[in-house]
Amino acid sequence: MSTLAVLLRKPLQPLRRPGRTDLGAWPVVAGLVVIAVVFSSLNDRFLSAENLTNLALQMAATGTISLGIIMVVLLGEIDLSAGSVSGLSAVIMTILSVNHGWPPLAAVAVALVGAASIGLLHGWMFTRLGMPSFVVTLAGLIGWQGLMLYLLGSGGTINLPFDGFLAKLSDTWLPAPVAWLIAVLIVGVCTAAALIDRRLRQAADLPVPSITRIALRLGGLGLALAAVVTVLSADRGVPLLLVIFAALVVGLDLVLQHTVFGRHMYAVGGNAEAARRAGINVTRIRLIAFAAASTLAAAGGILAASRLAAVNQSSGSSDTLLMAIAAAVIGGTSLFGGRGRAYAALLGILVIQSITNGMLLLSVDSSVRYMVTAAVLAVAVAVDSLARRGQPR
Amino acid sequence: MFSARTVSKKYGAVQALDEVSLDLSPGEVVALVGDNGAGKSTLVKVLSGVVTPDGGSVEQDGRPVRMNSPHDAQRLGVATVHQDLALCENLDVVANLFLGDERRRWSVLRPIRMERAARDLLASLDVRIRDIRVPVAMLSGGQRQSVAIARALVGEPRVVILDEPTAALGVEQTAQVLELIRRLRDRGLAVLVISHNLADVRAISDRIVVLRLGRNAGEFRTAESTPEAVVAAITGGVALAGAPRAGTEESA
Question: Membrane-crossing residues (chain A) (predicted)?
Fold first, then answer.
């Protein structure tokens, strides 16, 4: 149990268990609709293709960091160092590729491997030295930012060449036909998977979801993808950055839902002692989670550097970290561990970035923006705590 | 036949077990009773490989077996359901049943295979859970106990040890779990139940083994014993007139 979770936990009395229905992602989706309605009525540019494209670009970096946060939060732990690690990795990558003339991909690889080692170090301090993850990563938050500032030196800013591979990453757009092809492929693969699963379940004499239900789900997916492609293609096209982020989300969710490792992640997050007694190597799971968190943070930092076409002293500032954690929680990841999916990063960052983006459009002062974001976060955590209270302990 | 033979275990100056013997036979429910500190949990730990005894041995069909780790116990077909159940409440019934032993192809889970096996197992034990895909946190105490017991059976053990299976349950749920224990016996498993509740013990056991201060303090065929005799053996008091005294204090 992380320190943060202990701090957040109130003495909760188990209530009677009514037929509690899991609302899943619907509250977040409802929140998004409210945000869209409110901001578009205040400013008609909010739902314009151009603004939504900017929104997609703004989401990717912090969203990727948030994905890493989810890995540790699923274990009931916390990673406060994600922002600093993202900044440090971006700086390492930039120094290698700009100052030392390394090929960009090699620089990216070194930055990612470096971040993975940082994550392993955090995990080692947490599992072997028994330090609370809160403290380990708090030290990381301060220390890795220090190392980043040291590496940046007195210059303070290093620019990435605008026509280089790294800057191009965030200035690449899928042509409409390619985007449509990908969308059709995704729906096709999902349909095939759903039908095959249904047939296998039927063959095994297990209850199967109704065809209507499957059709509704796939139809919803198809509509959502079609809407995204239509809107983004009306501007510059679907940004590669969004595709990378979405691919990471989907990939991580597949790993968490369908592999033995993913199952063990949830088991350790739910009851580490039970997992240990069931023969699961809890230490290994924790090390991997921390390493994955830092690696994803680095990936996010690299995406952010690409978008800014530079790294500077405010790369991976504390704002980034707080937004990433808030996004994970708003998206439905429980800070108590064991509950949440990778899609939480996508939904959560969509909420946060929509608010930020909308308020910037209305030129509201950042003070108000922070307060509104805080209110949304508080509501999200309250929902989590209440949902948990419904469960007997 | 699975037995402990004159097993002793010392913790510092405390003699937790002093030449204790216990036999477990297929198709028989043995209740292990005794006051706090009688050595019940130490004996369970020896049988489940958590603790290595200082003296004596664990035997299977008359031959001593190596029993130095929980893994050894598992290999020999001894499954233990601890009092705290050790379930992951955020996972569903299927995931809990196969926790740590997931059916897989390479690293990918095979959910359909697991769900089919889970349904068959629960049906064969007559455990009724409306939806086995909901998190275990949503189940009643009796259902959770049933899931924990069913999980012990996934590895197809020969011996099942249940530590206080009815301690936290209401009347109706206790009845369900006792019924489940009977079903384990009918499957030909050797069952050892540790319990404080003598009513439950009388209801399900075929044989009662009493420990007192780390020693065998009596053994009864449940059907032929009186409650008073069992209580007397547990407390070390004198049995009421007429109750047969089947204690083994001579061995002390």
Answer: 23-43, 55-75, 105-126, 133-153, 173-194, 214-232, 238-256, 287-308, 320-336, 343-362, 368-387
